[in-house]
Amino acid sequence: MKTMLVVLVVLAIVGIGTVQVLAQKRERNAAVHYPPQGTLIDVDGVAVHAEQMGQGPDLVLIHGASGNTRDFTFAFADLLKDRYRITILDRPGLGWSDRAGPQYERIWTNAHEDPITQARLLRAATQKLGVENPIVLGHSFGGIVALAWGVEFDDLAGIVSVAGVANPWPGTLDWTYTVGGTAWGGALLIPLLSAFVPQTYVDTIVAGIFEPQKAPAGYLEHVGSAMTLRRNTMRANTRQVNWLRPHVVDLSARYNAITEPVEIVHGDADTIVPLDVHSIKLPDQIAGANLTVLQGVGHMPHHTHASDVIAAIDRVATRAGLR
């Protein structure tokens, strides 16, 4: 019995070591093939990755869950840089941005960077870059960060929510979030996923995010699934999503504090962040908010229906007196 126990312990150690080696190999490859494309801004010891381009009124772009700046640099930013000075940010713990430190984290003991914490950190980074009176656009998870920015601060010109998280949802999250978002799940499950998730699974996930439309050719290669599968990135993302709902409950009760122009663009075929849960109520919660519903459109309208999103940005710019 004692010999069997020793064998099992040795096998467990070898298995854990193998997982860590494979995960580290993937992470090294991610660093080689997807290095930072922008600047690492030091915000009180926290590195925030930002890319800037273009000229004109300031426009800040905030990506969704599991994403990074490359989601916007694939094509969308190029459509706007002739009329706006664009600042694209990696949210805390994702892309090449560090996790937020306790000086920005309201509930550091849980270490999951709630939307207000993220808004504070990203706003501080943009101020270091000279951004003034920006339009803040958030996609998916970035939508609730943009709304938190508007709730907490009044130094922005307006908000554009694109398929954005905005209101509390019923039911529970996928098990990968509820398990991976715990301390033990982050320690055990996340390394396994990081080491062994096959590319076919990643392809399926991305296809589901774009449905019923299709992902543009070359999109996944540009964004880099290897970036998403890094252990620290997965831990940050799962914790942020798993602990998000209570913060959405609190924030949604404060939307009447937003006085800037707000434009919402949301597809009625979005199954990731459903229109009827998140955006349909926003015009009643925020005075003057305008909702554009895209018929038959899924979760990625800034790629599949970019002209509609750009029109919303232009409307905010006009309403804010920037054009």
Structural summary, described in words:
By secondary structure, this protein is α/β, with parallel strands linked by helices. Helices cover 46% and strands 14% of the residues. Strands 1-2-4-3-5-6-7-8 form an 8-stranded mixed beta sheet, with helices on both faces. Helix 3 packs across helix 4 (141-152). The protein is globular, with a radius of gyration of 20 Å.
Comma- or semicolon-separated keywords:
15 helices, 46% helix, 8 strands, disordered N terminus, alpha/beta, 323 residues, 8-stranded mixed sheet
Secondary structure layout plus pairing:
Elements: H1 2-33, E1 39-43, E2 46-54, E3 58-62, H2 70-73, E4 85-89, H3 115-128, E5 135-139, H4 141-152, E6 158-162, H5 175-180, H6 183-196, H7 199-210, H8 219-223, H9 225-228, H10 231-242, H11 245-252, E7 262-267, H12 275-278, H13 282-285, E8 290-294, H14 301-304, H15 306-319
Parallel strand pairs: 3-4, 3-5, 5-6, 6-7, 7-8
Antiparallel strand pairs: 1-2, 2-4
Helix pairs in contact: 1-6, 3-4, 6-10
